[in-house]
Amino acid sequence: MVEKEYQIISGGTDNHLVLIDLRNKNISGKKAEQALVLADITANKNMVPYDDKSAFVTSGIRLGVPAITTRGMKEEHMQFVVNSIDKVLMNADNTTILQSVKKDVNGFMSQFVLYPELG
């Protein structure tokens, strides 16, 4: 995310949560959350320090990795995640691109079964 010039609050993270200030990307947290949901990517709008938007709109998003690591994703899979999030946020009003990312996300995630059969 840093390489794509996203503003990570605190400059990074030492835990499973990432708070991103989106003001330099010209998209609100609310709009980002809505666009990501359309692409089947879960994120939450979140206020950031010195936020100039209301709690109903926000200037940031919060991402967490427990859901994807629980499914078995590792570090080498994170570039797909980052690229998908970036593509959505940079094209939040383009439903064709959002649908394309949704298809890619669901295809990619099919290798990480949520409830594997026990046998």
Features:
single chain; 119 residues; alpha+beta; Aspartate Aminotransferase, domain 1; four-stranded antiparallel sheet; 4 helices; 4 strands; 36% helix; globular
Plain-language structure description:
- This protein has a single domain, classed as Aspartate Aminotransferase, domain 1 (Alpha-Beta Complex), CATH 3.90.1150.10.
- Helix content is 36%, strand content 13%.
- It contains four helices and four strands.
- Strands 1-2-4-3 form a four-stranded antiparallel sheet.
- A hairpin with an 8-residue loop joins strand 1 and strand 2.
- Helix 3 packs antiparallel against helix 4.
- The radius of gyration is 15 Å and the shape is globular.
Put simply, the count of helices is 4
Sequence stretches where pLDDT stays below 50 over 5 or more residues? none
Please trace the helix and strand order, writing H or E for each element.
EEHEEHHH
User: What is the CATH superfamily classification?
Assistant: Aspartate Aminotransferase, domain 1
Distance between the termini: 39 Å
Number of strands: 4
Mean residue pLDDT: 92
Return the structural class.
alpha+beta
User: What fold name goes in the CATH topology slot?
Assistant: Aspartate Aminotransferase, domain 1
Tell me the strand order in the biggest sheet: 1-2-4-3
What is the name of the CATH class? Alpha Beta
Assigned CATH architecture: Alpha-Beta Complex
What's the Cα radius of gyration? 15 Å
Shape: globular
Helix content: 25-40%
